Sequence to fold (294 residues):
Amino acid sequence: MKTPMLSILTVALLTTAVSAQRPQMTPEQQAEAAKRREAEMNAPRPIEALDSVWTEELTWMEIRDAIKAGKTTGLILTGGVESNGPYLATGKHNFVLKVAGEAIARKLGNALVAPILTLEPGRPDGDRVAPGSVVLSQATYRAVLTDMASSLRGMGFTTVIMMGDSGGNQGAMKDVSAALDEKYQASGTRFYFVPEYYDYTSVQKLIQESGIKEQIELGASQGSDRIHDEYGIDALMALYDPKSIRIDQRTKANKTTINGVSLLPMSKTLEMGKKIVELRAQLTVDAIKKLTAK
Fold:
């Protein structure tokens, strides 16, 4: 469809008007503006900092000061929303990352966590998208990863680490981190992908060794119930919020087992969830330290 000439003229006139309202600064004015920005960046923080590892919960001054104090590792965590079993909220991966990301950053001691990339790659243009499965195209997903990681570098982080809680995320993170590491290596910022975070087999082993005989094969994402759900996932999600696994509704419907294991009492499940978080955090931190030591 042809664009009406009137619309083109209107845009041109508006552009000219905006340009007229914003005259180009002289070199002296540019220098003065840079001086003001520098003063703002070095201004003292007027209040005590919040104790958080999540950048979205911090003020810009708190982030600035944390980086200056040595928290120069930025974590990019990727999750997704997808259809799972009939009892789990679609934000499963993102809820798991909230508890795991906190533990990993605390255990590292020198890290802050960027906002979780809550959508995973897929086929948004498909004819049949499962209810709840909001996805990004591969090109968009990789572009978002690139921009997030580049933003962290620009803030002053010298180590940027990517890891994901969903299987479909792994390839893009590996490729993007490698490309950015090559692009910015001369600048002193390094980019890494840590596949060791996505290790649910070790979680299943821990559960079995703890005496909880879930009916699921090691490495499988479905057990005897034949749904995309398992005890370790339920335990992690319950740590974030028991409502995310619909424990009240399941109790009323007498559906509180998964793959032959009861989720009740919840105190036992939550305690196992804490052990799983500790395991995953330790495996991930060990892998990060091994990578960065090189």
User: Anything to note?
Assistant: The longest strand covers residues 73-78.
